[in-house]
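Supplementary Methods S3. Complex input for the NAP-bound model.
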Amino acid sequence: MRIVVTGTKGQLAQSLLASATADISLIAVGRLSLDFERLQSIAPALAAADPDVIVNAAAYTAVDQAEAEEQRAFRINATAAGAVAAAAKKLGVPVIHLSTDYVFDGNAAAPYRESDATSPLNAYGRSKLAGESNVANAHADHVILRTSWVYSPFGQNFVKTMLRLGETRNTINVVADQHGAPTSAQDLARVIVAIAKRLCETPDDTVLRGIFHVTGSGEASWAQFAQAIFDDATAHGRNRVNVVPITAAEYPTAAPRPKNSRLNCDKLAQAYDLRLPDWRASTRACVTQLLDGASGQ
Ligand SMILES: NC(=O)c1ccc[n+]([C@@H]2O[C@H](COP(=O)([O-])OP(=O)(O)OC[C@H]3O[C@@H](n4cnc5c(N)ncnc54)[C@H](OP(=O)(O)O)[C@@H]3O)[C@@H](O)[C@H]2O)c1
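Predicted complex, serialized as structure tokens:
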């Protein structure tokens, strides 16, 4: 099976590339041949990679910057995502597209289900929500995976930021009134490969198509996530860092974030019998990879 992933240096693209096995080839197609801001580049670049499944992991992910660049975020996250799905349809292969918890406003008390009403608070969330409908409208053979708080040894993410700040600070203020589920891109990559296989084996199974939530198991606030990272770093000989819980109001950002980012992942478990490991164990594994100097970039 040939899985073709969009983007090369992204967290998920890198994690997918590391999941290649003897019988599963992972091919990343990056900006040299496929540029989401040049729509005409998309179909030829994907066709040339000869996929059995396409994973659309490339996206405009600068959440705060998107407030000032909403049109650009829409071109990449909505228009280009639709073009990727249209290319997959033309090639007769399924598409797996990534979306986000930020399609919700976070006002619900419970973890969000796939059927809950969407209402993004920020430009990034609006662009990703438009991407979901463009993908679904372009190609029935799709899986849209909404995930949250992604981290890995690759690219830019919260774990790497905390470890960097912890090198020079004893105390860090971190938001404690937003809750979600930290998600390891490496865990996500394993699940995506399993989903890709099932899609190829069952071309007509509508139960396996549609929107699914997939995050690390369990939940945390950003402050709890930070504390876990520093606890793990201490076990690797780093100095202890004190996390001071603050409110989101005390840490204003250009883009507002939902207070409740928790996603209910039961639908994926029922359809595919797949769940991601607990975020706590996967965070420890990521910190270990980064501080042992293995594979971090
Ligand atoms: N990170 C999170 O916390 C999070 C949370 C929820 C959902 N998601 C979603 O999960 C998916 C994967 O996220 P990630 O964390 O792996 O993202 P990431 O690390 O920010 O990587 C984004 C990728 O998109 C590519 N890209 C950006 N603009 C492009 C363009 N114009 N043309 C072609 N490629 C372009 C980048 O290309 P280069 O390789 O050239 O840099 C990079 O490979 C995305 O759909 C994201 O929206 C992420």
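The longest helix spans residues 70-91. Residues 2-157+183-217+262-277 form a domain with the Rossmann fold fold (CATH 3.40.50.720).
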